[in-house]
Amino acid sequence: MTRQDYIKLIAPVAQKVCKGTGLFASLMIAQAIVESHNGAKNTLSLLAAKYHNHFGIKTSKGWTGAVVNLKTREVFSNKDVYIRDGFRAYPTLETGFADRNRFLTVNQRYTRAGVFAAKTPEQQAIALQAAGYATDPNYAKVLGQVINGSAKLKQYDV
Question: Among this protein's residues, is 157 annotated catalytic?
Fold first, then answer.
């Protein structure tokens, strides 16, 4: 799937689930692009293609939904480390996207880091990284590059 085809697939869902939440659809789309490798159906994005988890959300205490254990890359002390971990699995694209927002809402570390106070998607990406969403030290920078890249993702922030 090309990036443009992937965006056409997920943008309406991102806009729907972000409406009225204080979360930017452009950031959600950028995260999905980065985390799922454009939704490609290969081993790198099996989590998205088969389990509708386009954001790499892991299981946590209190999660009662479906779980899939997969290999994942983490960055510790600037070194790539590959581990197996439990991830949330969803029945549909929309339930996975909606749960990403619920996940951010119920985990107060995202509010404390300023995710919901951010005035731009780039600020929101920085706040996500500050809250510990990803272990990659360049996560916010990469998301900003995708948001402002050729796909012009800010057009979906309506």
Answer: no
The CA distance from 95 to 80, in Å, is: 30
- Choose, from 5, 35, 74, 80, the residue flagged as catalytic: 74
Candidate list 99, 122, 136, 157, residue with the active-site label: 99
Burial 84-113 (b: 16+ CB within 10 A, else e): eeebbbbeebbbbbbbbbebbeebeebbeb
Crossing angle of the two packed helices 121-130 and 139-147, in degrees rounded to 10: 160
pLDDT digits (tens, 9 = 90+) for 68-84: 998 877 777 888 888 78
| pTM confidence score | 0.89
**Is 99 an active-site residue?**
yes
